[in-house]
Design goal:
Elements: H1 2-25, H2 27-46, H3 60-71, H4 87-101, H5 104-116, H6 121-131, H7 152-180, H8 185-200, H9 219-234, H10 236-247, H11 254-278, H12 293-303, H13 319-331, H14 344-359, E1 364-366, E2 369-371, H15 373-401, H16 405-416, H17 431-446, H18 448-455
Antiparallel strand pairs: 1-2
Subcellular location: Cell membrane
Pfam family, one: TrkH
GO cellular component, one term: plasma membrane
């Protein structure tokens, strides 16, 4: 008996040591393997007959796509989410949303902590990289940008507490409205929790067959959904900083200020653009009461943070409006948030760099602080990698689907930005197109910085400097 126990403990110890070594040697690869493994597990669960309402086996392409969309908190779907899945399937999807919403690196650090029962320096670095990707790279790190290593325990606690508490509050706000709409108590609570989880994780799945149509002019539902999406899109470092601010006097970091300021500007600018471009479109805002139109435009702008909910048929919007939403979805939300995209701080840094160049300043300055050059290099890399992923995916989908460019491009950017808004192109994709979009969601969710760090064989330190020569640019 003792031999069996000793053997069991020895096997577990080997697993723990291997996990520690793998997480220490390559945190990014460890995170990607964990993330991809969860997608495969959820795919297997959704392929079971018990996961569907009619007890049929969901085709592999649809099960895989739904699993990827759930874990990546995207919201794109190839099946009717409200009618296709059984209670078992919906519970599995909700678990996928919760798991995917906390972040790739944070998730890997938590799983590593469960296995190893300790949070060492590398595990702290792993979790911290979700709040500040610069930690993945060699060199000095501006700790004030996000979360310090000494605060990682607090970050993980904040992630867990904030997810549960915010979704509980949102559920509480949804329940009375659904009860007033004629739903019974159980249905109201279940659908309210589904709405709350889908909103906070910026997914956009709707548990009702009729979708968002009944709430197109409902200020309460739209406001609560919008609130959940905005909070989720700000990012856990911002939530962490704001929580500290309520408990005492703490100066907000540049990361927090840039996230809040840039997000507000993009939401307002997006709402104005959509309102102006869609005002006379009889198939979208033009069919609504003039009083409702500003609310719809604002709601759609909020959803481009990565929310994915929509009260109008996106496929019927003008091409100019789709292009505006393309740009907003590509940017996405805040770093280490449930939103996707290149992140609002990345856009802010690039804008500030262009402004500094126009003014003739040597340094990028904002809010009385200087942003170091390595942050700009990361920002440029993120944008270029993101644009490359979008371009390659769009070309591949145009080849296999033969759909119009504007529809395909919109859905590709929605997949990359894990947004979930769709022109209808996703539902009409062949199996090959579904796998391409799934890969795009995966790349968009794990993050271009994490992906690049995982692909790199190693980080090398160069002990010499080459001679300088300036090419002609511009």
């Amino acid at each position: 008996m003792r031999a069996r126990v000793a053997g069991h403990n020895s096997a577990f110890a080997r697993i723990r040591d291997f996990t520690d070594f793998f997480a220490w040697s390559s945190p990014a690869r460890f995170a990607l393997i964990i993330f991809t493994g969860l997608v495969i597990i959820l795919t297997a669960v959704l392929s079971l007959p018990i996961a569907t309402t009619d007890r049929s086996v969901t085709p592999l392409a649809d099960a895989f796509f739904t699993a990827m969309s759930a874990i990546c908190v995207t919201g794109l779907a190839t099946v009717d989410m409200a009618s296709h899945w059984s209670t078992f399937g919906n519970v599995a999807i909700l678990i996928g949303l919760e798991v995917g919403g906390i972040g790739v690196l944070t998730l890997a650090s938590i799983l590593g902590l469960i296995v190893s029962r300790r949070l060492g320096l590398k595990a702290k670095l792993l979790a911290a990289s979700d709040s500040n990707p610069l930690r993945i790279h060699a060199g000095p790190v501006a700790e004030g940008q996000a979360i310090r290593l000494g605060e990682i325990g607090g970050l993980l606690a904040t992630v867990a507490i904030s997810v549960l508490s915010i979704e509980a509050v949102l559920t509480f706000l949804f329940v009375p409205r659904l009860l007033l709409g004629g739903e019974d108590a159980w249905t109201s609570v279940w659908q309210s929790f589904y709405f709350a989880t889908s909103a906070f994780t910026n997914t956009g799945f709707v548990p009702r067959v009729e979708g968002m149509a009944p709430y197109a002019a409902d200020p309460w539902m739209l406001s609560v959904i919008g609130l959940g999406v905005v909070i989720g899109s700000l990012g856990f470092p911002v939530i962490f900083a704001l929580t500290r601010g309520w408990r005492g006097r703490h100066r907000m970091s540049i990361h927090v200020k840039l996230t809040l300021t840039t997000s507000a500007i993009l939401i307002v600018a997006g709402a104005i653009a959509i309102y102006a471009l869609e005002w006379n479109n009889s198939k979208t805002l033009g069919a609504q009461d003039p009083v409702v139109r500003p609310m719809t435009a604002t709601f759609l702008s909020l959803m481009t943070r990565s929310g994915g909910f929509s009260t109008v048929d996106v496929g019927q919007m003008h091409d100019s409006s789709l292009l505006v939403m393309d740009m907003l979805m590509f940017v996405g939300g805040g770093s280490a948030s449930t939103a996707g995209g290149i992140k609002v701080t990345t856009l802010a840094v690039l804008f500030l760099a262009a402004l500094a160049e126009a003014k003739g300043d040597n340094d990028i300055q904002v809010f009385g602080r200087r942003i170091p050059p390595d942050v700009l290099r990361i920002s440029v890399s993120v944008v270029l990698w993101g644009a490359t992923i979008v371009a390659v995916s769009t070309i591949a989908l145009l080849t296999v689907s033969h759909q119009p460019l504007n529809r395909v491009l919109f859905d590709v950017i929605s997949a990359f930005g894990t947004c979930g808004l769709s022109t209808g192109a996703t539902a009409e994709m062949p199996d090959a197109g579904k796998y391409i979009l799934a890969a795009t969601m995966w790349a968009g969710r794990v993050g271009t910085v994490t992906l690049a760090a995982a692909v790199a064989a190693s980080q090398r330190r160069q002990l010499f400097t080459l001679s300088e020569e300036r090419p002609i640019v511009g």
